[in-house]
Task: structure prediction
Amino acid sequence: MNKVFIVGIGPGGVEYMTAEAMQAMAQADVLCGYTVYIELVRELFAEKETYTTPMMQEKERCLWALERAQAGKTVAMICSGDAGVYGMAGLVLQLVEDYPDVEIEVVAGVTAALSGGALLGAPLGHDFCVVSLSDLLTPWEMIEKRLRCAAEGDFAVCLYNPSSKKRADYLKKACDILLSAGKSPETVCGWTRNIGREGQKKKLLSLQELREETVDMFTTVFIGAESTKNLSGWMVTPRGYERKCRS
Amino acid sequence: MNKVFIVGIGPGGVEYMTAEAMQAMAQADVLCGYTVYIELVRELFAEKETYTTPMMQEKERCLWALERAQAGKTVAMICSGDAGVYGMAGLVLQLVEDYPDVEIEVVAGVTAALSGGALLGAPLGHDFCVVSLSDLLTPWEMIEKRLRCAAEGDFAVCLYNPSSKKRADYLKKACDILLSAGKSPETVCGWTRNIGREGQKKKLLSLQELREETVDMFTTVFIGAESTKNLSGWMVTPRGYERKCRS
Result:
């Protein structure tokens, strides 16, 4: 079947995958994706052909998948988290017009904002923004503008890609922007690392403390709204503003 | 076991639930939740006790769950979509301090921003905001402020609760705010209705057209960023700004 599934598998472990994601992988002739994610699913489908590429070769990987599907195969392209949120679905859909026989199906998955959120409590219980601090594909000025708007709107904010070797100070820069745009230093924040995998960790802290925190690329960072509370170690953004007045 | 799982089951069908959500429900002595969601899972666990309450009695439902857990039961509180995003996790965590023996575990699920996004393509492929138009618990001025900030930051925006009988014109009001705050009338938008259920529908349209659209409370609305495209009927927000220059 000339088909590419783009499959979000969630944070990693089999328990976080939807039945739909499992079915898509089971139907596929070939599994492809970033090496680390393929390792996570290879043992489930040991008999299947796999194709892996390193981190940066994403366009090449999408073209490979589309070529295989054009040749009659069913391909499952594996994404961590969701297939759409900073995932490969958009890139495949940008390239598919040259492969008119190929059918596309996007299979949603639990993105880190949700899996990390569950670990912390309910940091995204009300309106929120998701912002990536990676400036590989986005000018830093745009990231800064978005952080500023997120703070001005008193959104809870979830930060993806908060750090990398080349961008060790980006989280500090982001905190400074949020502080200068109106978030209080006392804002309740949290982070999660290696969600659903070995070495899973979480921590609650203030925005002022987050500014000094060392995080890595496997960390997802949550910055509260004004209403966000630390309730016995749970990070909670209540759904209703009236609750704030009562407490 | 004195435990409450707060379980996000995704948009409805069993295929959208994670294995973790299924396991939590299987472990539970009692399933509780809004009547409609309990109907969705009752046939999977026909032997289990269930407790349902109508839409607005959420605090009462949370207290019931905590009481049962305090009395030694394992309770699974069912939420559609994710457990945290406009879900019950926050409210349970706000109430749990009076039930010191009760353990809480939040189980993430595929929220409508992701399941609806997958149906449309990849509308949330880059930074995005999620905003609820319900002013039951949030002053309309705050909703308006957030929409304005979302537009100023050129975020893709996902709107929850875009309409109800009492709020028939809220989507139009929201579109007008987004337009006045800088979104172009040509912005690529889309909506999904009854995701993963009977009567599933989707539509792509411009922001100008969305302004005139009639939607219901089962609709999730997506408003693109400046870079968002309609690619042969798929709504795609590319991850990289450089791609915009190439196309």
In short: Chain B touches chain A through 74 residues (CB under 8 Å). The radius of gyration of chain B is 19 Å.
